[in-house]
């Protein structure tokens, strides 16, 4: 017995969701899930890049331990033979299933999505995935292009469908099979959108009239942003529509009208995914599994929508590292459901008004590396032990910590007026921190700054986020022996969240930061 697990991971989704307080987006189905879940409003990825982030949270190890900062190595060969979260569930009697983009495909998951270690049957990939970057976007001239902004008529698409639609259909089919066979399952479903290209059914544009779309609150490159911290968004520059704008490298900026179009299409793609999630959760209801299936909903990292004059991921800012994270656990986050009552009726974003508030919300800062121990604890399995300082030789351990004890929001009262709060350090010292990192090939933005290959990495930006601040140091890094030299700091950033929620005013150079530095090294 025990609970089934439905693990939903969305590619490049920052928390632009109604349940996270976004006023523009239409995300009624994810909001409905949130209304039955505990929602973490301060969850962060360990690196704002698909493959490193996914390998990190699926193994429960940080990028310095998986040794994956790019796309080009398989951790079992290159770092250590680490057990993964799905592998652990498989070894504990679950049927483990992968649909869509869960592991990053290619070398980093051994060209097999880590099958057969992680999955009971070979992972499913939608057959239309291969057309993602083809010229399928109709331009104003009626010709087809490989654009960034790409609303499409689905009937004109190859096979008359899109990858995420196919993934939803396959996931629903597997739910029915599991129900019929009465098998306990761990089903991971990875949606592709809103990853670029922003290719989605064109009717979703109707939800977002262009005149309602604002620019980013801070669409300029901050004066005190170190050049090493800036990501020059080379991937979107390669798309036909962006290339035609002939924007200067590296700082741009994109024309305002086009900035609005990107933001509009990102929101439209989020609503398209919301519909897929709605159909999937409604199917869980219909096969009668919503009472004994826990649901995790998250993303691999965020995506900058013009903030700091930046687009895409590839940075240590919140817009790139912060992710949605929620857990639906029947009987824990909700009172158990009476038979025959649906928990997740499908909500049409075109007719359904704004979403509902979360069941419970935690502002505690948490990390995706904690997913593995958290899910193990929720499922009643033995929680993998904490990793020793050096763990390349240890197959099963985690560098995260279970966050189940934060599910009871009443514990969230911070101890006010504790001793030692005269100095900042005393106030800040015990609060949880999320660590993220990003590699760079050079101090100034260049063609490979966004995605340097391991051999080209010369600097690593280590970033620490607490409720109160984000502190980042960019230090010398040697890719031959994977060592960071904290004696050699190239640049630093410090943002105080209360005064500067958008992280625009770097006060690193006018603050003594020895204490932050010690805590980061801690």
Automatic annotation (TrEMBL):
Key word Disulfide bond present = yes
Q: Which InterPro entries match?
A: Alkaline_phosphatase_core_sf (IPR017850), IDS (IPR035874), Sulfatase_CS (IPR024607), Sulfatase_N (IPR000917)
Q: Which residues form the Sulfatase N-terminal domain?
A: 4-380
Bilayer-crossing regions: none
Mostly located where? Answer: other
The UniProt entry's GO CC annotations, sorted and at most eight, read: lysosomal lumen
Query: Would the keyword Metal-binding be found if you checked this record's keyword annotation?
Result: yes
Q: Where in the cell is it found?
A: Lysosome
- The protein's name: Iduronate 2-sulfatase
| Source organism | Mionectes macconnelli (McConnell's flycatcher)
Cite the source lineage: Eukaryota, Metazoa, Chordata, Craniata, Vertebrata
Q: Which gene encodes it?
A: Ids
